[in-house]
Amino acid sequence: MLVKMNKELLEEELTPFLSPDAKEEIKTLAVENIMGLTGTDDGKKFLGESEKLLGGIVSLCDDKRTDIQEMVFKSLINLATNEERSWKILNLEKYKNKVEDWLERVLDPKCKLADLVSKLLSNITRSEKCADYVGKLILKNESNGIDRIVLALCNLVYNDNAELHYLAMMLSNLSQSRQIRLKIMDKEQCIFQRLLPFTEFRQSEIRRAGIIGTLKNCCFDTEYHDWLLGDQVDLLPRLLLPLAGPEEFDEDDTEKLPDELQYLPEDKEREPVSHIRKMLCEAILQLCATRRGKKFVKDKNTYVIMREYYAWERKHDPTNEIAAMNLIDLLIGDEPTEEFGENLKEVEIPEDVHAKFVEDDRKELEFAEKERLEKLAQKEN
């Protein structure tokens, strides 16, 4: 329907009413129409191509009426679902600093729309390009820095009007930027450590996934592995515990495990969300990227936890098998010779060998998916 309309005429008619100074009833009608348009692909495409309309929408984020603000933020959340539109919203000529205002609102303990604003910030920072842009603004602004964001995120009663779960997803997105990760892992502060208790925060999948995503991203910086695995942080048990079940091990195996993994209760449940389990496996795999890191992970008897997890995962989501098996293969594999150096990520793999790895992974994934579909079919019959 929108394709058949005169887009220029629609832009010309709507823009004057997307202003804080427009008459209340007309402004309300215009915002309702905008919100309706953001519910369709054609509508989002049309609005994303118009800087005038995007500017008009953003101008109403501070409207005196809360219901209009609410519709505007919902519209922006719908629009900020791809990189191109998100980038345009962040770089509107008249509103280049608007994202800083949004951050201020999210971190205002009395803000009634903080959940909507945090969801917008989560969507708008999905791509690495947009996350990097917002991350640089945050690093420049000491009053709304990473430390304050993490403090708000880790305080469950920070705002009586909002849960702020999407603040964790925003943090995960921002941690795509190395500079943000370095700030999170500032050894003089206690930012990273505050996030650790939330690896098993069952009250919110969104908060849990965002924080585990942040931890995983930080594991890519190999120069911090000794610190992450050491007593100051002790990250490994936090990553392993959600993957552990109620299985009992013999005394020798149990004693080699971290204290937190020993003698778990009979009703111990694994992380219920598939993609979160995958992130946990990937994070531990990254910690094995250096010779010392791999030895530490192996010495903590990670293998026995992963062995039982792998057997369990095959019955639940076979598409996760590759992530688990990659880690198991590394743990049981021979130690690399000295010629490979300390950082195993820097080893050059011949193209033909790399291609074989990729092909093997593809075949394993296809087999796992086929097995999953067969099981579903059996259940239906």
Protein described:
The chain is an all-alpha fold and 381 residues long. The protein has helices spanning 7-14, 24-37, 41-48, 51-59, 66-79, 83-90, 98-106, 114-124, 128-140, 146-153, 166-174, 178-184, 191-195, 205-218, 225-229, 235-240, 251-256, 274-287, 291-299, 302-316, 321-332, 351-380. Helix 5 (66-79) packs parallel to helix 8 (114-124), helix 11 runs parallel beside helix 14 and helix 20 (302-316) packs antiparallel against helix 21.
List key phrases describing it.
single chain; 381 residues; mainly alpha; 0% strand; elongated
Brief write-up:
The protein is mostly helical and 381 residues long. 61% of the residues lie in helices and 0% in strands.
Describe the SSE topology.
Layout (H helix, E strand, L loop, with lengths): L6 H8 L9 H14 L3 H8 L2 H9 L6 H14 L3 H8 L7 H9 L7 H11 L3 H13 L5 H8 L12 H9 L3 H7 L6 H5 L9 H14 L6 H5 L5 H6 L10 H6 L17 H14 L3 H9 L2 H15 L4 H12 L18 H30 L1
